[in-house]
């Protein structure tokens, strides 16, 4: 068993010497970008959108919007950076509406 472990360690060390790129750590500079998209399909009641912007410092600012089944619109505005991480602000527009409950079966009759 010890021979197998020793052989594995030797193979790892040999691979690291043969492929020095595995030892390097890469630092990528942030690349600014922005995008936006939206879907509004009345027959299927799909209504949502997303937009996001990133600057050269790596800070990301964005928001997305979703039409909820209860009739409200949920909007999430967020920022992402290296120090604070993901910080979101969630807002709801409108009032939740639920249809009246109407059972589709006959009432149970006691005999």
TrEMBL record:
One of its GO terms (cellular component) is extracellular space. Keywords: Cuticle, Signal. It holds the Pfam family Chitin_bind_4. InterPro entries: Insect_cuticle (IPR000618), Insect_Cuticle_Struc_Prot (IPR051217). GO terms for molecular function: structural constituent of cuticle. Residues 1-15 form the signal peptide. This is Cuticle protein.
């Amino acid at each position: 068993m010890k021979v197998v472990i020793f052989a594995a360690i030797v193979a790892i060390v040999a691979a690291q010497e043969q492929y020095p790129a595995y030892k390097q750590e890469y630092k990528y500079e942030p690349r600014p970008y922005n995008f936006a998209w939206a879907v509004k399909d009345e027959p299927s009641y799909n209504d949502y959108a997303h937009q996001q912007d990133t600057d050269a410092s790596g800070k990301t600012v964005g928001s997305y919007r979703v039409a909820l089944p209860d009739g409200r619109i949920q909007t999430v505005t967020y920022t992402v950076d290296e120090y604070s991480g993901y910080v979101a602000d969630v807002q709801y527009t409108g009032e939740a509406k639920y249809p009246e409950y109407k059972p589709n079966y006959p009432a149970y009759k006691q005999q």
